[in-house]
Design goal:
By secondary structure, the protein is α+β, with helices and mostly antiparallel strands. Helices cover 20% and strands 21% of the residues. Strands 12-3-14-13 form a four-stranded mixed beta sheet. A three-stranded antiparallel beta sheet has the order 15-16-17, covered by helices on one side. Strands 1-2 form a two-stranded antiparallel sheet. It is globular and about 80 Å long.
C-alpha cells in the first residue's frame, strides 16, 4: 500500500491509493453544546432523500444519545474493540497516533478492518435515548459542575473523509471523491451491491438497499452546495449548531475561513474517531458537561480535551471572533466562506466577496412595560 500523510494522526499511514487532496474539501462543524436532540435534521434528510422502498431503515443523518446510544447498535464500540489498543503521544508540539489504523490493522486479503452489522442492529434508530452515564443516586441529588451524571446528543452524517474506507474497499471502483468539493459519491450504475463499502465504513454511514441491491449514502446535498445553498440538515437545524464550509490542511489555514478558524486556528473543533485513519471532514465542538476526559479522548482523540478547554476559555474571555463565528452557524441558507467581526455585527461573505449574512453580536433585549393599557392588565410576575 502507498503511504499517505494524515494530519489528524500527525504521521504517514498506509492507504490503497496515492495521496490526492482535492482542491477544495467540503466540511462541517457541529457544536454539541447546543444540540437539543430534536431530530429536525434527521427528518428533513429522511423526507428529502430516503423515503423510497428499501430505504426504510436508512438515516443518512441521525442523532444519537451518548454515552449509550448508537445507530447501528454499537457501531463505535465494535470497531474500537476490533482495532485494539490506541495510543497517542506528543511530539514536537503535535499529537502523533502510535496505534494502528483500520487500514494498517486489516486482516490478510482485506483492504481495511470492518464488519457487516446484523439486521437487528438497525431495529431502533434512537436506542439509548437520554440515558445518562450512570444511575442517579443520593449523592447526585445536587448538580455539580462538571456534571457527575451526564449525557449529550451526537448528530452524525457521512464524514466525506479524505481517505474513505468505502472508496478504498469497493472492488468495482464505483465510489469516488468529487474533485471540486471532495464529496464522496457512489456511481449507482457501476455498483453491484457487493457491500464491501458497507463492511468497511467504520462509521456505518453507507447503507445497502435490499430492493435495488445497490449501496446508498449521504451525498452532502451536492445539488444544493453547487448553488451555494446549505445542505438540508444544516439549514433545517433549529439549534443553529451547524457550520458548513471548506477546510484547508493546517499548514494552509486561512483565519478568515470560518472552518479553518475554528478547527486550525482556535482549535475548538475536533474530528470523530481520528484514530481510525480516515481523516473525516465533519468536526465537533465537544460537550463541556462530560465529567470524563477519557470518554472525550476515546471519541475525539486528544484533540477533544483541547477543544473543550479552548471552547470554555473563548466563552469565558468573551472572544468576540469565536462567538461571532458560532453565531453565524446556519443563520442563512446560503453558503458563506469568509467572515469578519465589524463593530456590533459578524458578517459572512461568499466566494465573490458579497455579504451573505449579518448577525448582531449582542441580541437586542426588549422589556415590556408592566401595564398594558389596551387590555387594562398588569403583566408582572413579581406581584
Amino acid at each position: 500500500m502507498p503511504m499517505v500523510y494524515n494530519w489528524q494522526l500527525g504521521r504517514e499511514m498506509f492507504y490503497p491509493y496515492e495521496e490526492v487532496r482535492v482542491g477544495r474539501q467540503a466540511a462541517g462543524i457541529f457544536n454539541l453544546n447546543k444540540c437539543i436532540g430534536c431530530q429536525t435534521c434527521t427528518m428533513a434528510c429522511k423526507a428529502t432523500w430516503t423515503s423510497g422502498k428499501g430505504q426504510e431503515y436508512m438515516f443518512w443523518n441521525n442523532v444519537e444519545c451518548k454515552p449509550w446510544g448508537s445507530y447501528p447498535m454499537g457501531w463505535d464500540v465494535k470497531i474500537l474493540d476490533m482495532l485494539g489498543v490506541q495510543k497517542w503521544g506528543r511530539e514536537g508540539g503535535k499529537w502523533v497516533y502510535k496505534g494502528e489504523t483500520i487500514f494498517e490493522a486489516s486482516p490478510e486479503n482485506e483492504i481495511s478492518l470492518g464488519y457487516i452489522p446484523n439486521d437487528i442492529d438497525y431495529i431502533s434508530p434512537n436506542r439509548g435515548e437520554d440515558e445518562v452515564s450512570k444511575p442517579i443516586s443520593d449523592e447526585d441529588r445536587f448538580i455539580r459542575i462538571p456534571h457527575q451524571v451526564w449525557m449529550f446528543y451526537l448528530p452524525r452524517i457521512c464524514n466525506h473523509c479524505t481517505y474513505p474506507a468505502c472508496l478504498a474497499a469497493c472492488p468495482r471502483r464505483a465510489i469516488y471523491k468529487r474533485g471540486q468539493d471532495g464529496v464522496v459519491l457512489i456511481d449507482q450504475v457501476r455498483c453491484r451491491g457487493y457491500r464491501e463499502c458497507f463492511r468497511s465504513c467504520p462509521y456505518k454511514k453507507v447503507f445497502y438497499n435490499h430492493v435495488t441491491r445497490i449501496s446508498e449514502k449521504c451525498i452532502f446535498c451536492y445539488p444544493a452546495i453547487e448553488k451555494k445553498v446549505l445542505p438540508r440538515c444544516f439549514r433545517n437545524c433549529i439549534g443553529k449548531i451547524r457550520t458548513f464550509g471548506y477546510i484547508n490542511p493546517p499548514e494552509e489555514a486561512d483565519p478568515e475561513n470560518p472552518i479553518d478558524f475554528l478547527v486550525h486556528i482556535k482549535k475548538i473543533a475536533a474530528p470523530i474517531l481520528p484514530q481510525l485513519g480516515l481523516e473525516p471532514n465533519i468536526y465537533y465542538i465537544p460537550p463541556i458537561n462530560v465529567a470524563n476526559d477519557k470518554f472525550i479522548t476515546m471519541l475525539f482523540g486528544p484533540y477533544g480535551v483541547e477543544a473543550v478547554n479552548n471552547y470554555k476559555k473563548a466563552i469565558e474571555e468573551n472572544d468576540i471572533e469565536v462567538i461571532g463565528a458560532l453565531l453565524l452557524s446556519n443563520s442563512s441558507m446560503h453558503v458563506y466562506t469568509r467572515f469578519r467581526v465589524s463593530g456590533d455585527y459578524v458578517i459572512g461573505y461568499d466566494d465573490d466577496g458579497r455579504e451573505v449574512v449579518r448577525v448582531p453580536i449582542q441580541e437586542e433585549l426588549l422589556v415590556r412595560p408592566s401595564y398594558d393599557p389596551l387590555l387594562d392588565v398588569y403583566i408582572r410576575n413579581d406581584v
